[in-house]
Write a structure and sequence with these properties.
The protein is an alpha/beta fold. The protein has 10 helices and 9 strands.
Length: 272
Amino acid sequence: MSAAGPLHTLSVGTAGPRVAFLHGLFGQGRNWSTIAKALAGPDGELARCTLVDLPDHGRSPWSPEFSYEGYAVSVADTLRTIDPGPWIVVGHSLGGKTAMVLALTEPTLLSRLVVVDIAPKGYGDLERFAGYIAEMRALPLSELDGRADAEARFAEPDPGIKAFLLQNLRREGAAWRWQANVELFAADAARGSGSVIADWPFTAGEVEPYAGPVLWIAGSGSSYITAEDGEPMRAFFPKVRQLTVKGASHWVHTDAPGIVIEALRRVVAASA
């Protein structure tokens, strides 16, 4: 059963292999627009890219509870309505875990998998996101008189993170609301080490490994992927190849778009 109804998508490109992009927590499909446009090429004929808003994000429906398996079903159903595939699926962080679950549960839907700066493991809890969630919940939506007012009231000091989080703020008539399902994420964060979002749903041997090619992109300055993650990654994805981008953080595609674009061009060329 899917976690939500049909997901909102944006399309870039008119010909070539099908590529789906899955964003991270509090992101939206359009976060990958620059990469997708470069991949599709100036005439849009090198790749057909679909930018997906995951459940509980962007303009997609909300789900009653979080589940990676549910997210993967929603993505699979949405992609199949566009094209039966196979698809190259690119996922970052939360979207990377969703993409891995999709590959393991719906392997015929994919021709190739690209996982960006996340590993198939539990990360303990959502502590690193707890402050962002608290800031979002503290913003007095009923008092806002404009986006500038929201920016002034929002407590996040890092301008990049502030802009990233506030992209989730949407005006409907005179009222403001969060597009992201903040309360769902807050409830998950409150579970501490029981967080489902921070966890990984499978153990090695529980599911059949994905037999297709996998590109695993890591940021050298990120703590999300360690040397110890190689063995479990190979257990689930035996045809994995790792690319570590020097100087990049967890947001590899933002820090080093040129390198990510070139890597994805090679993946697309191998699928053509």
